[in-house]
């Protein structure tokens, strides 16, 4: 039987988005192929992506304990659509849609929340700490949800540590990727190191510039390409200009999935120097393209990569060993090709997006 689903998300393509937006976009397409009717309520910056319903962000505190549509921005819109065609399930992605989703919950619609990046995580950089209100909305979303999906065992442990009362609700469903789209032979590629993602401190791109300068001294033909957008773009651009290896570096904006796939297919190796990574979608996208990954063993990344088998894991903050691993793969294309072939097989076996989406839809029916 087809379902009517209300999804709340901060990210949705083609507006720039990270792994959260990519996952939600794929899930929505999958649900619609199953015959489900899906409304996507978008809480990100305007303009709203095509096919979504824009809801204003809410950053204040409620005037009372009762959740009322009159003071929830976009609440009347949500309830109006529910009145016309009632929803069967609410699916919140992270905490941002907690309040409008609660309006539907009050009217008897069951709710599920997927935690992609916990607001309650102990890791935060100055200027990136979640507000107290974000923490309250996360608590609300988890409290109302009958099931909480964690995108990795790492995220599940984070949630269990912070919210012990909700531990029995948590289910782990690893993200997947489109293995038909992200594909390609590994082959003997050019000496290109790729890094991709949101340009924030969390992703470690500034550290990667220092790592690459060391690589470039030992492998003068090496090049570094960083693809992404985000708040650290200007700072990263200036750091590249100041680097001794500036002529071998480039910073490109994220454009579309076709361009990203091409970058994966060209690169000898993907570098993931994140200091905190709840899952690591770019890792499985690259691996699906036969591109091996060198990454710090942080967050959910050790659940994706098996060191020495389908990629290389480095101890957190060990820049010297990170540079050494990149240099070895640049100098040994056969080794890189072998790791890349195994990496694709890993993704085929464990990270198929259709499997992930089917497991999520099954939870809707429990």
General description of the model:
With 366 residues, the protein is an alpha/beta fold. The protein folds into two domains: 4-176 and 352-364, 3-Layer(aba) Sandwich (Rossmann fold); 192-350, Glycogen Phosphorylase B (Rossmann fold). The protein has helices spanning 19-33, 75-84, 98-106, 132-144, 153-162, 205-218, 233-242, 257-266, 281-288, 319-331, 333-350, 353-364; strands spanning 4-9, 37-42, 53-54, 89-93, 111-115, 147-150, 170-172, 192-196, 223-227, 249-252, 269-272, 293-296, 311-314. Strands 3-2-1-4-5-6-7 form a seven-stranded parallel beta sheet, sandwiched between helices. A six-stranded parallel beta sheet has the order 10-9-8-11-12-13, with helices on both faces. Helix 1 crosses helix 12 (353-364), helix 3 packs parallel to helix 4 (132-144) and helix 6 packs across helix 10. 46% of the residues are buried.
Primary descriptors:
single chain, 366 residues, alpha/beta, Rossmann fold, 2 domains, 7-stranded parallel sheet, 6-stranded parallel sheet, 12 helices, 13 strands, 16% strand, elongated
Number of domains: 2
Helix and strand element order:
EHEEHEHEHEHEEHEHEHEHEEHHH
Rg, rounded, reads: 21 Å
Quaternary state, please?
single chain
What is the count of helical runs? 12
Largest sheet, spatial ordering of strands: 3-2-1-4-5-6-7
**Share in helix:** 25-40%
Helix-and-strand structural type: alpha/beta
CATH homologous superfamily assignment of the largest domain: Glycogen Phosphorylase B
Low-confidence stretches: none
Can you name the CATH architecture of the largest domain? 3-Layer(aba) Sandwich
Shape: elongated
CATH topology group of the largest domain: Rossmann fold
Overall strand count? 13
For the termini, the CA-CA separation is: 13 Å
